[in-house]
Design goal:
- The relative contact order is 0.21.
- The protein is built from eight helices and seven strands; from the N terminus they run αβααβαβαβαββαβα.
- α6 (172-185) runs parallel beside α7.
- Strands 1, 2, 3, 4, 5, 6 and 7 form a seven-stranded parallel β-sheet that branches.
- It is α/β, with parallel strands linked by helices and 251 residues long.
């Protein structure tokens, strides 16, 4: 995985430089210093959100069979998530997986197709085969959006003395964002590799990335995230690069 020397921020086409600089002038968008004991969490990358790959998986067609699917964005992200999982395993970074509980609580009032999700076959809640967990890796069910709310994840992170959480999965504006906020609130530095998270449509995805990068997390790319894991394995310091509001723009 190689990173471009002049990276263009994933939100650059929806957040203009003037709007971006308002946030920078207010002090936001700094680079948190990641720690030396990271973990990686894969949020809700189950068949419910990806579909099964049989036939057209694009939106809106896939919604006929998988009402919660994220379409092509999920299938673009899957190989990148797999790369980061493989890299985490090679460098000794623990990996955990969340999946949604059958009982969605108040969320059922926000989704008109919740009854269809509740009656889906059990395999729809399985982690996608391309990123299947290994024996000994934490797999847990969560009752709400955040992977840290009323789950064993935070206790496991504290047991392992984790100080930095790499968040991948879906959906960027939903369960990923909720996980990032809870991790930040728990005192963890958070990295969000943008190619390894996904949402149904581009604008909510990109705006969520921008907001998280300004306030709660370092949005990175996969190459930078892999480099960070390498640095941790080697006992070397690491600093996340900043995004440039003018990168890729025509003067």
């Amino acid at each position: 995985m190689s990173s471009s020397p002049t990276r263009i921020a994933p939100w650059a086409d929806v957040v203009g430089p003037d709007e971006w600089r308002v946030h920078l002038a207010a002090g936001y968008g700094g680079r948190s210093v990641p720690g030396t004991r990271p973990a990686l969490v894969v949020v809700d990358v189950t068949y419910e959100f990806t579909g099964d790959g049989d036939g057209d998986m694009s939106l809106p067609g896939v919604l006929d069979r998988f009402p919660n699917a994220c379409g092509d964005a999920a299938w673009r992200a899957l190989p990148r998530i797999r790369e980061l999982i493989d890299h985490a395993r090679r460098t000794g970074v623990p990996v955990g997986y969340s999946r949604m509980a059958a009982d969605r609580g108040l969320w059922t009032g926000k989704n008109r197709r919740a009854s269809e999700l509740a009656s889906a076959p059990a395999w729809v809640s399985d982690i996608h085969r391309d990123i299947a967990p290994r024996d000994g890796e934490l797999v847990f069910t969560k009752p709400s959006a955040s992977a840290l709310y009323e789950t064993p994840l935070l206790d496991e992170l504290r047991r392992r003395e984790v100080d930095t959480l790499i968040v991948t999965g879906c959906a960027t504006g939903g369960c990923v964002r909720a996980t990032v906020l809870d991790a930040f609130g728990a005192g963890l530095t958070v990295l969000v590799p943008h190619e390894a998270v996904f949402d149904r449509t581009p604008v909510p995805h990109k705006v969520s990335l921008f907001d998280m990068d300004m306030r709660y997390a370092n949005v990175t790319d996969c190459a930078e995230t892999a480099g960070y894991m390498d640095a941790c394995a080697a006992g070397e310091p690491f600093a996340c690069a900043e995004w440039d509001p003018d990168a890729g723009r025509v003067p």
